[in-house]
Structures are given as C-alpha cells and as structure tokens.
Amino acid sequence: MPSTDAGRRAVPRAAILLIAAITVLWGLNWPAMKMAVSELSPWTFRAACVVISGTGLMAIAWFSGERLRLPRAYWRSFLVVASCSVTGWNLLSAFSLKHMAGGRGAIIAYTMPVWAAIFSALWLGERLEPRRILALVLGMIGIGFAIGPDLVGLSRDLLGPLFMILAAICWAAGTVAIKTRAWPIGMMAHTAWQLVIGGMPIVLAWLVIEPRPDLGHLTWRGILATLYAAIVGLIFCFAAFNKVVTLLPATAAAISILAIPIVGVLGSAWLLGEPAGWRELVALVLVLGAMSLVLIPRRLTK
C-alpha cells in the first residue's frame, strides 16, 4: 500500500518532463488519428498500430538490454493490465467511434482520471485528498467547457458514449493494475508485452471483420498519420505514460494527462481547420489549474 504522504512529496523532474512531452505529442495524436481514419477503417488502423508499435517497442527493449521474460507468477496480473489497457481500450473505443464523432469521443475518454481515482481508493488505498478532489472537479469542468453545446448531441445515440465510458474505465483499471505489483521487467518491455498480448484479439478481430482491407484511398498523408500514431502515440507516449504511473500515485498520474484532449482540440484547429475559440481557452486554463494541484508541491502553493 502506498505511503499516506505520497501526495506531499515533490514530483520527480523526470515525471514533469514526461508529462509535458506526453501532453503535446499525445494531444497531436488525435488530429493524426483523424487523418488516418479518413483513409483507413478504424479496424485496419487499430491493427496496424498495435502490430507496428508492439514489434517496434519489443525490438527497442531487446536492443536496450531490458529483461524480456516475465516470470509465471506475474502472468495473471499482467493479463489484467494488457486486456484492460490495450484490448479493452482499443476495441471499446473502436466500437464507440462507429456511433459518435471522434472529437466527442476523445473528451469522454478523458473522464479516465475519475475512474482511476475510484479504483485507486479501492485497490491501492490511495486517499482522495481535498487537492486531488478539487483537481478532478476542475478538470471535468474544463473538459465540459471544451465540448460545450456538443453535450446535447450525445443523447442522439447512447451506444457511442456508453462504449467510450467503458473504454475509459478499462484504461483506468489497467493504469491502476500496474501499481499493484513491483514488476521484474523494465517499463519498455512491460509496455511492449502489453501491446503484443493485448493487441492479439484486435488483430484477430480485424482479420475476421476485414480480411481484405481497402487500401485504395490510402495516401502518403494517411501513411504518415498512421506511423505517427503507432510510433509517437504508442511506442513513445504509451511507454512514457506507463513510466509516469510508476513515478506518481495512480490518481495523480491520471490527472496529469487531462490537458491532452485540449491540446488535441487546439491541434485539430491548427492542422485540420476545425473550429476552436474561447471555450477551448477556458478549458485549457481550468485543466492546467487541475494539473498544478497535483504536480506542484504543497509548500510552493501555500
């Protein structure tokens, strides 16, 4: 069980740097995914990403000298992590995107910190201190500002929001499950095995659903967007986030990524010409306030 003064310790500099990189690069991953799925089906896109990222990260872990073999005693716990963080997240979010727009889905996906806070309290005994509760409230209000009037549209097809909420719950459960064990392998190898094992059902489903994918509309733009999502979004950002989870309490790690959908909205405005205005700026201020509550030590804020 984590120490009760976990929230009082200064955040490691490595965590701050990783969070900054994740926020920008994972935020830009959303417009990249929009570019990719405009030319590829969601299933082909997902399958390509897990194959490229899983094999790529496994190779990086091997060349860097990380231990790759996971002892049998850890298999059950690892399957929970992989099935939640990779299989559940990707499959449920793919089903969700059949029923709702990607932008709205991204916002709902980042309710993950709420579920992570609940799971952390139940499984890890993390105390929901007032600062973290306030951070969650500010973050959710900020996300609410980002979607604004789009909230009305969510009621038209409830399957989309339902699947995305379940996807967010899976992601949160996988994040917290990482904290339940002291893993005997490095985080790159850990993330690589997550992508390989968790990606197998995705590839099998893709082979059944789309045995002959239509690549006739694929351009260099779509290829580069897919490679960005696989290499930057999964190989770097997913591994970096898993590292942050090992450096911070699970709830704090989850809250630290709340700015990603805002960056995604602003990045889509910049790269795709999608509308963005005062709501996005207010959302960004609120989310940054939420992040500061968990990342800035108390002694600096008194």
TrEMBL record:
Protein name as annotated: DMT family transporter
Q: Which domain of life is it from?
A: Bacteria
Which InterPro entries does this UniProt record tie to the protein? AA-Vitamin_Transporters (IPR050638), EamA_dom (IPR000620), EmrE-like (IPR037185)
How does the record classify its membrane topology? Multi-pass membrane protein
Q: Does the keyword Phosphoprotein apply?
A: no
Q: Which UniProt keywords apply?
A: Cell membrane, Membrane, Transmembrane, Transmembrane helix
- Origin organism is Benzoatithermus flavus
Q: Which residues form the EamA domain?
A: 15-145, 159-295
**Where does the record place it?**
Cell membrane
The reply on keyword Isomerase is no
| TM ranges | 12-31, 43-63, 75-95, 107-124, 133-152, 158-178, 190-209, 221-241, 253-272, 278-296
